[in-house]
């Protein structure tokens, strides 16, 4: 049988006729996340195509996304005629702008010094000769005489701003394609069925690349936490968005007031649905409830065609810098490789583990070029396996209280220690605004190392405890069985034996079978898809 050509994330690959998605997986440029959807796009007839104002400029330093102001302008017409062939190197790069070219055009040159704003995109004639035209992207506000067509600035850089700063002489434009193609212009679908057959000319999109905004450092951390397994799960859908509800209810702050254009990634910071993260699939105005934290710069087809209950792979730019849970040695090697100054405090013995970093956010670390970490002996690290299938709501409370939902390590101060009983209280007083209903209460015995929380049937609700011996009368926090919710078990109890009152321990989750079932299935019963409610939230 003859071979067929399929395009995988912009690269044409040859596979055997009758090949399936499973046959294409080895050609992916990244590891495949089991269960993640892949978008298969089949182009319609050319006459059915819908014009677009947004284009993806793929360079050797990453993707730039530009939006044309007016498709009828002189510069836009030149762009639409020539963009497919503009595979040119960086000609000039300075503090004001980057230019690519030169290439030949024909237009009346406009002279005179003009003001250009940051992220303006224009055509400029070198020596006022249109045959020496360059594509110019502005890096800062400045005045210059570029010899543009009469319309001057014809587009704006809307995403890829981090990549713009990386460009220098020697870099090149590798390809330019329309960025967001409306669903009406495409025949596409998403599937996680690796037995799906491929046809000649199919285009596969296997991941979405998200560029996180420098204006939203804490929002970016929320997104990193949401996608720590490398996927974005779709819980809610509407015409204008897709949302992942995994961190619904988590506290977050408003940082960036910006229009929610197609591809914008935004975080709901107040009201119903606080903590939800959205990807816009239609243009919407700025909102005081939605902080824009990033943009999809590649793979927008995945959120377009994905439905509720599906998930797709994501890659973030810049990558996450989270040192908690790592050793000083591992972290220093990583940070040295990217030019970040590294300072450590606290314990530095061979069995160290990092439990705190400052600045907390990746974007601030990159901006400042330095990070300070605090380490403790691994004997301070307590490994816990949660019983998600028995006490999901109480586990959600606990993980929220010690910030284990957004960080790999959670801190927990000890409150009382007696005999073989250890009682703790989280610094965040989550019990003041969250319920702890009775759930998975013991009946006959509490086994050694079971981790329990006092529920709201007792005054000391929210206290956390563990016993190192079996107990038939009282729970791990000293309360009666009916006031105790069992949420998991401590896997390394010996690390508790030298603990003193007031000491702080650090919790690390070890994923057991119930956690794996949860991660592979739905993310939470309480976050069921409600399209009507979700649509109201986006207003």
UniProtKB/TrEMBL annotation:
Protein origin, superkingdom: Archaea
Residue ranges constituting the Putative peptidyl-prolyl cis-trans isomerase domain according to the UniProt record: 382-509
InterPro entries found in the cross-reference section: DUF8179, Methan_mark_3
Family assignment from sequence similarity: Belongs to the UPF0288 family.
Designated name of the protein: UPF0288 protein MsAc7_08790
Annotated source species: Methanolapillus millepedarum
């Amino acid at each position: 049988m003859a071979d067929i050509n399929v395009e995988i994330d912009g690269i044409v690959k040859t596979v055997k006729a009758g090949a399936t998605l499973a046959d294409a997986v080895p050609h992916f440029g990244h590891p495949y996340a089991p269960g993640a959807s892949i978008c298969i796009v089949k182009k319609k007839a050319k006459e059915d195509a819908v014009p677009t104002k947004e284009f993806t400029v793929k360079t050797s330093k990453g993707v730039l996304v530009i939006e044309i102001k007016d498709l009828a302008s002189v510069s836009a017409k030149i762009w639409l005629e020539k963009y497919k062939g503009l595979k040119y190197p960086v000609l000039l790069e300075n503090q004001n702008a980057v230019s690519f070219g030169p290439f030949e055009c024909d237009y009346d040159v406009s002279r005179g010094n003009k003001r250009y704003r940051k992220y303006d995109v224009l055509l400029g004639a070198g020596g006022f000769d249109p045959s020496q035209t360059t594509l110019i992207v502005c890096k800062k506000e400045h005045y210059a005489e570029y010899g543009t067509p009469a319309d001057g600035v014809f587009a704006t850089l809307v995403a890829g701003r981090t990549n713009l700063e990386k460009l220098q002489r020697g870099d090149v434009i590798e390809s330019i394609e329309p960025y967001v193609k409306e669903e009406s212009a495409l025949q596409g679908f998403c599937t996680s069925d690796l037995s799906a057959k491929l046809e000649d000319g199919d285009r596969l999109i296997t991941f979405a690349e998200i560029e996180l905004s420098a204006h939203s450092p804490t929002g970016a951390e929320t997104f990193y936490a949401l996608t720590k397994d490398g996927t974005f799960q779709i819980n809610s859908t509407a015409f204008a968005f897709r949302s992942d509800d995994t961190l619904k209810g988590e506290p977050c702050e408003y940082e960036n007031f910006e229009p929610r254009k197609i591809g914008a990634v935004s975080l709901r910071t107040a009201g119903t649905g606080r903590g939800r993260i959205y990807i816009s699939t239609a243009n919407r105005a700025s909102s005081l409830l939605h902080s824009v934290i990033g943009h999809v710069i590649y793979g927008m087809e995945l959120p377009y065609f994905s439905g509720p209950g599906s998930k797709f792979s994501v890659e973030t730019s810049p990558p996450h810098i989270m040192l908690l849970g790592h050793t000083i040695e591992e972290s220093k090697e990583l940070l040295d490789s990217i030019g970040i100054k590294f300072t450590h405090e606290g314990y530095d013995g061979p069995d160290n583990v990092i439990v705190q970093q400052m600045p907390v956010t990746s974007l601030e670390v990159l901006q400042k070029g330095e990070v300070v970490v605090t380490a403790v002996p691994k004997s301070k690290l307590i490994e816990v396996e949660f019983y998600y299938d028995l006490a999901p709501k109480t586990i959600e409370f606990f993980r929220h209280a010690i910030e284990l939902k957004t960080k790999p390590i959670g801190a927990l101060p000890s409150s009382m220690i007696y005999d073989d009983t250890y009682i703790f209280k989280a610094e965040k007083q989550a019990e003041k605004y969250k319920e702890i209903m009775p759930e998975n209460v013991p009946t006959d015995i509490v086994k050694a190392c079971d981790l329990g929380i006092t529920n709201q049937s007792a005054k000391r609700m929210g206290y956390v405890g563990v016993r190192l011996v079996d107990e038939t009368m009282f729970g791990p926090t000293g309360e009666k069985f009916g006031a105790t919710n069992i949420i998991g078990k401590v896997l390394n109890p010996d690390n508790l034996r030298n603990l003193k009152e007031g000491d702080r321990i650090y919790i690390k989750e070890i994923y057991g079978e119930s956690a794996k079932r949860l991660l592979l299935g739905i993310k939470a019963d309480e976050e069921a898809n409600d399209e009507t409610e979700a649509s109201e939230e986006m207003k």
